[in-house]
Write a structure and sequence with these properties.
The chain is mainly α. It is built from 14 helices and no strands. The protein has two domains: 87 residues; 166 residues, Farnesyl Diphosphate Synthase, CATH 1.10.600.10. α1 runs parallel beside α4. The two termini are 34 Å apart.
């Protein structure tokens, strides 16, 4: 079954860079994550309906754990991928837990709370991919976590305005207060006063986390390493764009263009 990714993504998903035998399982994993994320984010469902849909996905994972055959094609395919590659179900449950939190929680008191969310919303994807690659070294898993958390933070910075329209703020409340940034300022899209110093701090922290995991791109072999180097370069390019605009995501939301991709591919190939 073909699961098309219908959403804009900054980074490759099941791209042609991956070995052919890994493209299908990656596609199924992303289909699961994308559909579950849509339950939390898309449409006009009431919160309780969104939670029920996510709980239904958790029930389907229970069926997989018990060796039962699902009536849902996606979960039939997912069960096959999980069995073939011995993927931990806990990572899929972490994703559902994070998406459920998106429905219930709209503010984060501090960076520790944000990182706890990243641990469940982003890091499981990287860990699942490493399992597909047959890599389970603790140090490599930690570097993967660094990259995935950084990418999640970068996405938060890109989507400050979009998330605010959805009623969510992923920026730590204590840091907003430190820089005297109010929700009213976010609502009006103002970048005066201490906005740029605040964004500089956010950009630098995400950059440090991304670079801490970047060596993994050279440790993984062949196309897998190339794919990861490209992902890291994509995150780095978005951060550079944020810096160039002085953090003005309200009028200059950074996206990757064709010229960016060409430069990134060139650098990813040469960096092996």
């Amino acid at each position: 079954m073909d699961y098309a990714v219908q959403h804009y993504e900054n980074f490759p998903v099941a791209s042609i860079l991956l070995p052919r035998h890994l493209r299908y399982p990656v596609q199924i994993i992303y289909a699961f994550a994308r559909q579950a994320d849509d339950f939390a984010d898309e449409g006009n469902d009431e919160p309780e309906v969104r939670i029920r849909k996510l709980q239904a996905f958790n029930t389907e994972l229970d069926h997989i754990a018990q060796g039962e055959i699902s009536a849902i094609p996606l979960f039939q395919d997912l069960a096959s991928v999980i069995k073939a590659h011995q993927l931990p179900l806990s990572y899929f449950r972490d994703l559902l837990d994070a998406f459920s939190q998106d429905v219930r929680k709209t503010r984060y008191a501090n960076f520790a709370e944000v990182m706890d969310y990243c641990r469940r919303s982003a890091n499981p994807i990287g860990r699942l991919l490493l399992h597909l690659y047959g890599r389970n070294d603790a140090r490599e898993l930690a570097m993967s976590d660094g990259i995935c958390s950084a990418l999640q933070l970068i996405n938060f910075l890109q989507d400050i305005a979009i998330d605010y329209q959805k009623g969510r703020i992923y920026l730590p409340q204590d840091e907003l207060a430190k820089y005297n940034i109010t929700e009213h300022q976010l609502a009006r899209g103002e970048t005066n006063d201490l906005w740029w110093p605040f964004m500089q701090f956010q950009i630098a922290r995400a950059q440090k986390l991304l670079q801490a995991g970047a060596p993994l791109g050279k440790q993984l072999p062949g196309r897998i390493g190339l794919e990861l180097r490209l992902i890291v370069l994509g995150g780095d390019r978005i951060l550079n764009k944020l810096h160039t605009s002085k953090g003005d995501i309200f009028h200059h939301r950074p996206v990757l263009k064709k010229i960016d991709w060409l430069s990134m591919i060139y650098r990813a190939v040469r960096a092996k």
